[in-house]
Amino acid sequence: MRAVADGGYANLVLPTVLREARLQGRDAGFATELTYGTLRMQGLYDAVIDACVDRPGRAIDPAVRDILRLGAHQLLAMRVPDHAAVSATVALARQHVGQGAGGFVNAVLRRVSERSRPEWLEQVAGSTTDPIERLAIENSHPVWVVRALRAALIGHGASTAETSERQLATLLEAHNTPASPTLVARPGLGAEDELKEAGAVPDATAPTAWTMPGGDPGQLAAVRDGGAAVQDAGSQLLALALAAAEISTTDTSATESSTTDTSTTDAPATNTATTNTPTEQWLDLCAGPGGKAGLLAALAVQHGAHLRANEVQAHRADLVRNTLRAVRHAHPEVVHVTVEDGRDVGESDPGRYDRVLVDAPCTGLGALRRRPDARWRRTPKDLAELGPLQRDLLAGAIEATRPGGVVLYSTCSPHLAETEFVVKDVLKVFPSVSAVDVRPLLRDRAGQILPDTGPGPWAQLWPHLHGTDGMFLALLRVGA
Questions:
Q1: E strand or H helix at 86
Q2: Between 42-51 and 99-112, two packed helices, what is the crossing angle to 10 degrees?
Q3: Ramachandran bin of 90, using left for φ above 0, alpha for ψ from -120 to 50, beta for the remaining angles
Q4: Closest C-alpha among 84, 65, 61, 66 to residue 74
Q5: What gap in Å lies between CA 56 and CA 77, rounded to an integer?
Q6: For the chain, percent of residues with pLDDT exceeding 70
Q7: DSSP 134
Q8: What is the pLDDT of residues 371-399, one digit of tens each?
Q9: Antiparallel, parallel or unpaired: β 209-211 and 182-185
Q10: N or C: which end of the chain has fewer CB within 10 A?
Q11: Model-level pTM?
Q12: Nearest CA among 177, 164, 307, 295 for reference residue 232
């Protein structure tokens, strides 16, 4: 908890802690629920803790507050006997803070234990007249996030003003429901049999997706070797959509002649195009840490295409190389990894690529069920800082795409300021670029078009409707 408060990410910190402590099975599951559950519900627990303090508004040491949150989660949301939850949490406070803290934690948690969770919800939210603020307290989200999600539900056509409160409550509940690990079986790498033997089952949402009901996916050889990986089904769908999109045929001379790469790369950008069968050039503009690039690389092999996976930061480019190791080993000519600012690629490599993915940096408000700390980490200020970057990256991607090629812009956020507004603004700058209806490309394992993705031409996925992260997708075709 302290590591997350100091800037760490729970999904990165916790696995390391579990490995170092050699926790497995039920113990690992308990620690995971305690950590993730406390992070999810800390807004509610803070309101309960403050109601139990004699002097309202009293400043509580951050480390002590973290410990109190852990105790509150055991008392109000886990099957831990009250005496055991209080005793263990008091011991934690004495060990890490001091005897005085132990006494304070004991007094507060005994007050917490006097009421059930429903009683505390009524206590801390019952007098709130604003329905949005009440939902924020009950479901432990910052108020600004709840308001933004309501606007996104309406803006993307998932609800109307009249039904938004009901839909919003369902979405917030989905954010607080732990998601089963979803894996991708990268096509052509033979991971499916091992996933099946490990107890994973095909996920209905995407043709390449598998759901693992329990266990550590990192222990699977297919995951260690790169044939499979932990990846949300929504992320898989956007890579599949880009690979399936129609592109217009055009003169390939510009593509074949543009072989100069000014970025840092680990392999030459070869082009084996012939006069009759030109090799498609694909680009993942913001590839780090490599999840979507891993699936794109496998799909590129099947399509006879070449993929450039680009990342602005060298250490994240190393993560991409590691993720792509299976494809790079079997097909070294297919994939190369480069280090370059994505905003500059349109200038350094103009009009070269047939298919470009822009998975833009965003607030991550669509992944709150998997990254519970993100709801407390992000602020409205982030939107103002990310907006210009998102627009510049999309513009650079368009400039790097040949006439007739396509660009897929995506974010793991439904916020209108990161999705529809960005696309519309960039389209105004490029009148020859048009939006293509991406919804028919979003097909489940049975080949059916996913329902409830919005009125088009772009699509929005939702945790409560599709069981995926809240991915936004817009497909753009570059004109002459």
A1: helix 82-96
A2: 100
A3: alpha
A4: 84
A5: 24
A6: 91
A7: H
A8: 999 999 999 999 999 999 999 999 999 99
A9: antiparallel
A10: C
A11: 0.90
A12: 295
